[in-house]
Amino acid sequence: MQSFTREDRKEENMEIQFKKPVLEDRELIKHYLSLQQSRSCELTFGNIYLWSCHYKVKFAVVEDMLIFQSADETSYSFPIGRREGVKAALETLINHAKERGAEFKLHMVTPGQFDILEELYPGRFEIEYDRDDADYVYEAEKLASLSGKKYHGKKNHINKFKRMYPDWSYEPLNDENVEDCFQMALLWRRENGCEADREKNAEMCVALNSLRLYKELGFCGGVLRVNGQVAAFTVGEPVSDDTMVVHIEKAMSDIQGAYTMINQQFVQHECMDYQYVNREDDVGEEGLRQAKLSYHPAFLVEKGTVTQKADI
User: How far is CA 236 from the centre of its chain?
Assistant: First the structure.
């Protein structure tokens, strides 16, 4: 992967060469992501790689910082890497936008990142947060135990599930059960009419590829069976040293309580070495928002779009 500094670009009149991420870029991208220690669900290699086909996101290394460019090439991510490299990378991006005759814009910027921007450029930029993009982050111990009055309803769902399906079982995702999960996902796609909905179909393509490439992407997962058949599965990966992110969670609608059960079982078996579990955003769907709020997040990871103030 070629890296450009401002001096390189000035002397050789180089354009920053953004490229689509491929599996061979995994270690490079993971290196920069590990320096960031963000809890934002987008900042994992698995999420970046799997969604890059749909959203056409590209990346480059600029001033020894990782940068992502939006599909329409109108905005950049906040520079990812060591804190001391942020300003040089931002200056290069500001000049890159100027040379292209475009407005400088940053997307998916967290409050912590905007604080850094304010420190470097006091009063120059503004941010508009989008509630639909906010990630829900929970305490792993609370998702595992579901103890206390506010989780009483969830605990009831778990108990009802165990009464209705006494032969249920949980397994970690592995080579022996991944094909069963793949077939269950294909059935889920047919039953939920995903072919007629572009976004739903894209999500299911991501789900299927997450199973197909789970080892190459470093994913872990959980499988819930009822009567020996896969009733639900989930797939995730660490996003930071203290947070696991859940990328995919699918359950058959005719198995009551399957979503609640796979949620708890995955956390109990795969997430107890982490303080937090990020269950991603709600994409603005009211039903999904209420479902995520019902688990009582510890906090939300807010994200917004940064632009230069109009009066500057």
Answer: 9
